[in-house]
Amino acid sequence: MDHRVTLSVLLAVICAVAPAGSQPLHGRVRPRPKCTDAQPLEQRTELANVIVSGYVGKVMRKPRTLQYNCEVQIVRIFKGEETVHNGISPPMDPQTNQIMVTGFGDPAICDNAAHVGDVKLLLLDRDRNGFLRLNSSLVRITLGNLDMTNAFVKGKFLFC
């Protein structure tokens, strides 16, 4: 009987102390930054300089940071073909259509996680060093998203 009471008291103490123990020692919890790309797809396509659909072939994590780079094999270029072929560093591999994209894992971008094997629409910008960087959330490949992106880029808006 004593063992059950002791065990109950021990569990109660652990449950009471565990939430306090999970807080940082300095006493404050830093709020997560809010993502800034909560705009509709139409506005995001206007802001992006390069829009491609692509297959994530390789993920390269950076040490001591949340952000990482991905090697992406381009399936289709919707916008920025000249930039992709001539204006980026490192240049696109003409044999495999692979480009390097930075900015994955950026907390300012809502849906920013990519995994090997993902096929997504990527809305990109070229940074001052010539690298292609994720501009806004990754977009799922659906027939509707492909049609809308194509229409927005060509200036032909779809009304459903």
UniProtKB/TrEMBL annotation:
Keyword terms of this UniProt record: Signal
Source organism superkingdom: Eukaryota
Annotated GO CC locations: plasma membrane
Signal sequence coordinates: 1-22
InterPro entries named in the record: NtA_dom (IPR004850), TIMP-like_OB-fold (IPR008993)
Keyword Signal in record: yes
Gene Ontology terms describing biological process: receptor clustering
Keyword 4Fe-4S: no
Domain annotation NtA: ranges: 35-160
GO molecular function, one term: laminin binding
Protein name, entry field: NtA domain-containing protein
Organism this protein belongs to: Patiria miniata
